[in-house]
Amino acid sequence: MAESGLRQDPQSTAAATVLKRAVELDSESRYPQALVCYQEGIDLLLQVLKGTKDNTKRCNLREKISKYMDRAENIKKYLDQEKEDGKYHKQIKIEENATGFSYESLFREYLNETVTEVWIEDPYIRHTHQLYNFLRFCEMLIKRPCKVKTIHLLTSLDEGIEQVQQSRGLQEIEESLRSHGVLLEIQYSSSIHDREIRFNNGWMIKIGRGLDYFKKPQSRFSLGYCDFDLRPCHETTVDIFHKKHTKNI
């Protein structure tokens, strides 16, 4: 589909490259990624069309745009149906020391104004850095466009003196959330192993390492200490599903 006739200027070349990749992903049945490339390629072609004055070239560009738009629309309908049927599945592999995977970057695609309730199952919200991870995740949830009112946390109890620190930390987070009009419900389980996050708009995210996939910063004044998009990650896998209904814990 991505024809060599597009290769006349930098913008046309970029469009051809992106659309070629879209076709490759499409042929491999990697439809979510293909859709993104089709949409990006179409936007680039529209920019080329705006700067084209020759009527014949404009006609050819419109035909190409129409063809790609039809394919993109068909893929979108297919993915929407997959979501409706509860069959949608996307996998992201985070490589060792990879960056760019802050909670905002990873979750923002699935958070919108329909999200009012969140369920988190993670056995390791216990140590100080894990409590901070959970706090950071909660901070993301109360920002727009979300309208989160209830957060359910299922985790495991720490042992010994650390249990006091865990309880105090979660209590402080609970009180802080309450001041923002958000209820935090905490339950403990000694048999929990799975790590799972669910939103009441149907999205379910399973992260191999749970929320604790960031590496320790090199120092308090190193890049990535504050901005977690710059923080290196441990290797892990993120599986994303969509279901019509989200179960309660």
From TrEMBL:
Mode of membrane association: Peripheral membrane protein
Any one GO molecular-function label of the UniProt entry: protein domain specific binding
Keyword Mitochondrion carried by entry: no
Subcellular location(s) per record: Late endosome membrane; Midbody
Main localization, broad class: membrane
Alphabetized UniProt keyword annotations: Cell cycle, Cell division, Endosome, Membrane, Transport
SMART domains, A to Z: MIT
Chain ranges of the MIT domain: 8-86
One Gene Ontology CC term in the entry: midbody
InterPro entries recorded: MIT_dom (IPR007330), MIT_dom_sf (IPR036181), MIT_domain_contain_protein1 (IPR052817), MITD1_C (IPR032341), MITD1_C_sf (IPR038113), MITD1_N (IPR045331)
Classification via SUPFAM superfamilies: MIT domain (SSF116846)
Swiss-Prot/TrEMBL GO biological process terms: midbody abscission
One Pfam assignment: MIT
UniProt subunit comment: Homodimer. Interacts (via MIT domain) with CHMP1A, CHMP1B, CHMP2A and IST1.
Protein name as annotated: MIT domain-containing protein 1
